[in-house]
Specification:
Helix content is 46%, strand content 7%. The chain has 15 helices and 10 strands. It has helices at residues 32-40, 60-67, 102-109, 116-120, 123-139, 146-151, 153-163, 170-181, 187-210, 216-226, 231-261, 264-271, 276-290, 322-325, 360-377, and strands spanning 43-45, 55-57, 72-73, 144-145, 297-301, 305-307, 310-312, 317-320, 382-383, 405-407. Strand 6 and strand 7 form a beta hairpin. Protoporphyrin IX containing FE is lined by residues 95-96, 107, 159, 240-241, 244-245, 248-249, 252, 292-293, 297, 349-351, 355, 357-359, 362-363.
């Protein structure tokens, strides 16, 4: 077969396209093609929507080594960055897309509220939010869409309270967040949604500059006053925290529930557990098994990096595919089995290295409260329909379900 070599000496047509499709009927498993690549070795090449051919890193050990390596960058404006969509040139969503030292400087400003002790103090309030929403569900008609009635409101109410964003605006910010993380949105749609959210956060900052409250946005206005943070920077940070704070956890609640309903033995173990350690290990295992941020951590090499006998050249794009890393048999025996009793805490569902999820203590606590309450309070919870009718978020940068009709 003859084909044209690209400048890297590759046959682009023979390089598989990324992202890849999941197998029909296996909504919880990463694409089989990724499994096959992982068996071959830790590094391979894939082809993106724009014809570029970044590296894909499929094995757990190499993923952690690279994500901890200071010779990689998250800067989307650098040539070679493997952008998931044609979005280049638009303003980055705060420090998640910045390199150190600016990344570290900004991240430090919002670290304290996510410290474990501070998060633990919120547990009773999260328990109350969870119980109230379940009361409302039980008092209303069935079947009900668990996403709308429960999975989205829990983390949205929590992040709104932390940031000082009025929950009454949830339709507005949830709609715009959806557009931003939807792969199929056009660059224009995405940047318009980002603009609307930044404008909204900007208005809230205006109010809090005059009338500060006991919340994170008010604390950011102090940084604006001292000149440590620009107005635009504060609004961008608000956008990042608002989106990251509700979208991810909401998807874990709904997809986690579906995975448990499909694994009734595991669900029964969790429902009957009165040991917080088992609840906590169930949360870690579901994070590992479902890995909702399924499009890989995107990076670009700043220098030549040698790994597993290969040289990643400066300027090469990298996709660290943590979804398949969490199914690496070298790190998790029998990785495709959901086993809430295993120790899965070393998973990479929150990423690894300097950009590792800032909100993980909060996400963990919310999921522990939800998973230990929902199935105990509604022991007969079940799907209202067939699994093959569920609309999955194949097109989103965060995986999950658009709707989850349930009854009891
Ligand atoms: C189950 C829920 C969650 C999952 C699976 C998740 C996953 C992740 C992942 C994989 C990253 C790393 C991004 C990268 O390396 O490119 C990340 C970063 C981040 N997450 Fe989360 N997240 C969750 C919940 C939250 C919550 C509740 C917050 C609260 C606001 C949050 C805030 C952030 C922030 C601010 C970053 C950027 C950190 C940095 O760049 O230094 N996340 N998250």
């Amino acid at each position: 077969m003859t084909s044209t070599l690209n400048p890297a000496g590759e046959h682009p047509a023979e390089i598989p396209e990324y992202p890849m499709a999941r197998a029909a009927g296996c909504p919880f498993d990463p694409p089989p093609a990724l499994h096959a690549m992982q068996e071959e070795g830790p590094l391979a090449k894939v082809r993106l929507w724009d014809g570029s051919t970044p590296w894909i890193v499929t094995r757990y050990a190499e993923q952690r080594a690279l994500l901890a390596d200071p010779r990689i960058s998250v800067d989307v404006t650098r040539p070679g960055y493997p952008s998931p969509t044609p979005i280049r040139g638009s303003s980055p969503i705060s420090f998640i897309l910045m390199d150190d030292p600016e990344h570290a400087r900004l991240r430090r400003m919002v670290t304290a509220p996510f410290a474990i002790k501070r998060v633990e103090a919120l547990r009773p309030a999260v328990q109350k939010i969870t119980d109230d929403l379940i009361d409302t569900m039980l008092a209303g008609p069935k079947p009900v869409d668990l996403v709308e009635a429960f999975a989205l409101p829990v983390p949205s109410l929590v992040i709104c309270a932390l940031l000082g964003v009025p929950y009454a605006d949830h339709d507005f910010f949830q709609e715009n967040s959806k557009t931003i993380i939807k792969r199929s949105a056009t660059p224009e749609q995405r940047s318009a949604a980002l603009g609307r959210l930044a404008g909204y956060l900007n208005d809230l900052l205006d109010e809090k500059l005059v009338n500060p409250g006991d919340d994170m946005l008010s604390q950011l206005t102090e940084r604006i006053k001292t000149g440590e943070l620009s107005r635009e920077g504060a609004a961008q940070m608000g956008v990042l925290l608002l989106i990251a704070g509700h979208e991810t956890t909401a998807n874990m609640i709904a997809l986690g529930t579906l995975a448990l309903l499909e694994n009734p033995g595991q669900l029964a173990l969790l429902r009957d557990a009165d040991d917080p350690k088992l609840v906590s290990s169930a949360v870690e295992e579901l994070l590992r098994y479902l890995h909702i941020t399924h499009n890989g951590r995107r990076r670009v090499a700043l220098e030549d990096i040698e790994i597993d006998g290969q040289v990643i050249r400066a300027g090469d794009g990298l996709i660290v595919a943590n979804d398949i890393g969490n199914r690496d048999p070298g790190a998790f025996p029998d990785p495709d089995r959901l086993d809430i009793q295993r120790d899965a805490r070393h998973h990479v569902a929150f990423g690894f290295g300097v950009h590792q999820c800032l909100g993980q203590p909060l996400a963990r606590m919310e999921l522990q409260v939800v998973y230990s309450t929902l199935y105990r309070r509604i022991p007969t919870l079940r799907l209202a329909g067939d699994l093959d009718q569920i609309p999955f978020k194949h097109d989103g940068s965060v995986y999950g379900v658009y709707e989850l009709p349930v009854t009891w």
